[in-house]
Amino acid sequence: MPSRSYVFHGLTNSLCSQCLTKVEAKIIFEDGGVYLLKHCPTHGREKVLIADDIAYYKRTQELLKPGDMPLKFNTPIRFGCPYDCGLCPDHEQHSCLTLIELTDRCNLTCPICYAGSGSAPHQKHRSLTQITRMLDSVVANEGEPQVVQLSGGEPTLHPDFWAVMDLAKARPIKHLMINTNGIKLAQDHQFCRRLSTYKPGIEVYLQFDSLRPEPLQALRGVDLRAIRQQALAHLNEFNISTTLVVTLKKGLNDQEIGAIIDFALRQKCVRGVTLQPIQIAGRVEDFAPKNHRYTLTEVRRAILEQTRYFQPEDIVPVPCHPDSLAMAYALKWQGEVIPLTGLLTSHELADLLPNAVIFEQYPEIRQRVFELFSSGHSPQSATRSLQQLLCCLPLVRVPAGLTYENVFRVMIVQFLDAYNFDVRSVKRACIHIVHPDGRIIPFDTYNLFYRPGSQGYAKITAMKI
Fold it and tell me: Is the dihedral of CA 208, 209, 213, 216 positive or negative?
């Protein structure tokens, strides 16, 4: 009797990548990879790679934690996921990080832009009244929001940017990020000086895709190397916490991952690197999904192959959304880079966790690990969580004088699109965007369905009528 060429692992709902119809999808293991097998009545069969490491994929399904609920839900359940976003009561995770888009305007027109910013008709600034309502929506849902990110467009172009900063700082937001391409930071020294007066509790989320001109031309339409260097010079001068954010396209800049991490480690102000494979949404020029899609597990492997700091056990799934987020921590200490697991010898681990049982069976250690590996951390709060974790391990000495300047984080963020869409996963999404009307919507579904002009916007609009 013949056998299938694959192992059937599970079943979920996905989307047809052409028409965004919700379709049933098998999750299969084949030839070392994990695939979605789906069939649309109109567009036929589709097979999509979602991971190239079966063992790691299985690990993501094991490392789960109970979802943290928001204080309130904003929309009812009517049509089922992903058509009720707002958040609806069927969503499984609160907002670890919430984006507020201040403007559609941008001083770049990047060939790759999930928001499609910088070109007509997307040229509007949000009013202070709208931004106030959006901030208040986050506070109503979260109480004390962990991380709010001011984004766009290019948020530093907003004519009332400092008023927005004051509005945000007046609310119980633990950490405020500014998502920027760095042009304002590079060209306006006084802007950086004034930004530094809002410390602590702020961070710059700096676009930083490549150290070479060709990828920057392909992703941003212009060679931004000088801009990036000048922006970092100012950020280093004022020691403003910074994360370098790398948009990754397979075959373009994926061989620079190690070099960018090395570069980041040499910058005083940089607390980490975030690696984001392109989400196929918004403006995506010169992008062939069969050739250029890049999965989380491929990024993870590239980190291991291109850096000398991390081992496989260092880069772990983030428990609040493990199949879309992965993270590694290291200490910059006395001229060395020490991964978190490097603080523990195998002998110490054996003493701490007898009979080789995994840490999840030790509730206090498990909880401290879950707290540390959260996408809702700032450099300061991550440092506190690291200290608390190390204090739970009696054979490990907490380094004296440990501050957030010593802690370095590498994070992989893989957003879902119509190709890799998995309802089970999107229900756990913890990175959200605030709609101008106050709804709070997962980043993944916002860019597919809820952003005006997006591929599925007409579909959602017709359903709500």
Answer: negative
Beta-carbon count within 10 A of 346 CB: 8
Element (H, E) at 100: strand 97-101
Among 191, 192, 221, smallest CA distance to 209 is for 221
Query: In this structure, how many other beta carbons lie within 10 angstroms of the beta carbon of residue 161?
Result: 20
Q: Which of 6-15, 255-264, 292-301, 372-381 has the lowest mean pLDDT?
A: 372-381
pLDDT over 90 at 401, yes or no: no
User: Is the preceding peptide bond at 82 cis, omega within 30 degrees of 0?
Assistant: yes
- Contacts of residue 246, defined as CB under 8 A and 6 or more positions apart, other chains included, come to 208, 209, 210, 253, 257, 260, 273, 274, 275, 276
CA dihedral angle for residue 101, residue 104, residue 105, residue 108, rounded to 10 degrees: 90
pLDDT in tens, 337-386: 888 776 655 444 444 443 333 444 556 656 666 666 666 666 777 677 66
Residue type, 55: A
What is the DSSP pairing of strand 407-413 with strand 336-339? Answer: unpaired
Task: Give mean pLDDT, residues 381-401.
Answer: 63
Least reliable range by pLDDT among 182-186, 365-369, 452-456: 365-369
Query: Could you state, in order of their start, the residue ranges of all structural domains in the chain?
Result: 97-335+408-423, 336-404
How large is the average pLDDT for residues 168-197? Answer: 96
Residue 190 has a CB neighbour count (10 Å cut-off) of 8
Contact 224, 216 (CB under 8 A): yes
- Burial (CB < 10 A; 0-12, 13-18, 19+), residue 459, is middle
Q: Report the distance separating Cα 281 and Cα 30, nearest Å.
A: 27
* pLDDT (0 to 100) of residue 340: 75
Answer whether residue 403 shows pLDDT above 80: no
**CB 19: neighbour CB atoms within 10 A?**
15
Q: Rounded to whole angstroms, how far apart are CA atoms 407 and 404?
A: 5
Pick the CATH number of 97-335+408-423 from 3.60.60.20, 3.40.50.2300, 3.20.20.70, 3.20.20.150: 3.20.20.70
Nearest alpha carbon to residue 192 among 147, 154, 160, 240: 240
Please choose, from the candidates 96, 81, 25, the residue with its C-alpha nearest in 3D space to the C-alpha of residue 420: 25
Say if residue 200 is preceded by a cis peptide, omega within 30 of 0: yes
- In sequence order, the 6+-apart residues with CB closer than 8 A to the CB of 302 are 254, 255, 257, 258
Averaged pLDDT for residues 314-325: 88
Write out pLDDT tens, residues 415-428.
999 999 999 999 99
Q: Where are the alpha helices (DSSP H) in 280-353?
A: 289-292, 296-306, 346-352
* Spatial distance between the Cα atoms of 384 and 378, rounded to a whole number of angstroms: 10
